[in-house]
């Protein structure tokens, strides 16, 4: 008969130390890890109480504090929130990059790891399964040009397939037009799309991002009716003899914003722009977004313009700084050459460089950020219902990567229900 072994009736941590089954509840390493984790997660709260405020370093909003209703997602979301809100994060990034360049002559890998994506990990279709962390946050191109790493990583590691993205965009067109409204969609091209010749000769994700880019521009304009501005942007740059994207910022210049406004106005009212007069006005420095990711604080010179839709010498532009997370309303008295129809627009940071010229040429326009549409579809529906025209400006990298939550057909359907209840006759 085999002898049965009975476990002690108490927790192993409470056994005498000499007992063979004794295990400490928290060893020294466990205790150290626990203390570090607590400090990591509470540091942002302590710094907030002391008056320190987090700095947005990347081309996205800071991670929000996770909701207790997220279940286990609350704990997994704490890391991203704590990282974004760490005190002195910006100074730490600057220091790390300075040390890396000084000692090793190369930029610090402030996000991600190797330049070479791992091959063979998790394969189920014969292709490598890429992870977003293998891509650098910044791609240093030729002639000092800097590109946002998401131009590549979002294409190579999309959240939605291109078929799903196209279906989402087409659903938006359907619900808007079903309510009797006009729908316009413009995709702001990535800088790496307009100026691929300034990308480095070799970089992580070159093959997968190039294939995804080609497929994106082959299908999306044709299948969704999106306005493809690539040719117009290059034509304007050639005419003005200067790039239409900043060399160290991910956005286009004011000239890119004006080009978009021209294209949108002409689609609504062909010929309306024939009398517009555009002239250079003030210049001012703008803090470039990409160098921050390398621990650098650099600016680009911004050339702004005056715009008189009636062809006079009276500038009709008006600049109101906004990230559109709170809707921005721009109302202007009607003049010849203006689009006199209420327009409601969903736009991101590229529209910031167009908003002064939208104010100059549209009598009634309100702009809201794409993320806010998914956060509160009912409120977004009420806002869009105020317009006779609904216009979307979306960035290529976020569309190609399926990163906009509003691409979910359920969001479009919720907004569409509000629009259907307030049709345009």
From TrEMBL:
Keywords: Alginate biosynthesis, Membrane, Periplasm, Signal, Transferase, Transmembrane, Transmembrane helix. GO terms for molecular function: transferase activity. One of its GO terms (biological process) is alginic acid biosynthetic process. Pathway: Glycan biosynthesis; alginate biosynthesis. Pfam families: ALGX (PF16822). The chain crosses the membrane at residues 31-52. This is AlgX/AlgJ SGNH hydrolase-like domain-containing protein. It comes from Saccharopolyspora hordei.
């Amino acid at each position: 008969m085999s002898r049965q072994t009975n476990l002690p009736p108490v927790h192993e941590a409470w056994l005498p130390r000499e007992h063979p089954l004794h295990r400490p509840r928290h060893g020294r390493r466990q205790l150290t890890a626990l203390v570090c984790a607590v400090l990591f997660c509470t540091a942002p709260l302590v710094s907030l109480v002391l008056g320190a405020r987090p700095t947005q370093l990347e081309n996205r909003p800071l991670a929000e504090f996770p909701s207790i209703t997220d279940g286990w997602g609350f704990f997994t979301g704490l890391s991203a929130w704590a990282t974004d809100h760490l005190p002195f994060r910006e100074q730490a990034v600057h220091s790390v990059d300075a040390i890396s360049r000084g000692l090793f002559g190369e930029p610090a890998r402030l996000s991600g790891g190797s330049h070479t994506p791992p091959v063979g990990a998790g394969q189920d279709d014969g292709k490598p399964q890429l992870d977003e962390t293998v891509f650098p946050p910044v791609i240093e191109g030729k002639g000092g040009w800097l590109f946002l790493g998401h131009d590549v990583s979002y294409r190579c590691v999309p959240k939605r397939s291109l078929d799903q993205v196209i279906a989402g965009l087409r659903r938006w067109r359907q619900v808007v037009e079903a309510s009797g409204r006009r729908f316009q969609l413009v995709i702001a091209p990535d800088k790496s799309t307009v100026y691929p010749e300034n990308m480095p000769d070799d970089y992580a994700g070159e093959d997968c991002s190039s294939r995804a880019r080609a497929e994106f521009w082959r299908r999306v304009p044709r299948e969704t009716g999106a306005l493809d501005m690539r040719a117009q942007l290059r034509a304007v740059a050639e005419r003005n003899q200067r790039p239409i994207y900043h060399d160290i910022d991910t956005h286009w210049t004011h000239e890119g914003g004006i080009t978009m406004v021209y294209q949108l106005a002409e689609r609504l009212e062909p010929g309306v722009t024939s009398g517009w007069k555009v002239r250079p006005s003030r210049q001012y420095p703008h803090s470039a977004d990409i160098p921050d990711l390398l621990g650098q604080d650099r600016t680009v010179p911004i050339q702004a313009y005056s715009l008189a839709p009636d062809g006079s010498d009276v500038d009709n532009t008006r600049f109101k700084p906004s990230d559109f997370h709170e809707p921005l309303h721009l109302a202007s008295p009607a003049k010849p050459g203006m689009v006199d129809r209420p327009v409601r627009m969903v736009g991101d940071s590229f529209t910031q460089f167009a908003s002064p010229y939208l104010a100059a040429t549209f009598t009634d326009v309100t702009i809201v950020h794409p993320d806010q549409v998914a956060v509160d579809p009912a409120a977004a529906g009420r806002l869009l219902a105020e317009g006779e025209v609904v216009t979307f400006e979306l960035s290529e990298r976020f569309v190609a990567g399926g990163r906009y939550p509003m691409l979910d057909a359920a969001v479009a359907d919720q907004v569409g229900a509000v629009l259907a209840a307030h049709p345009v006759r």
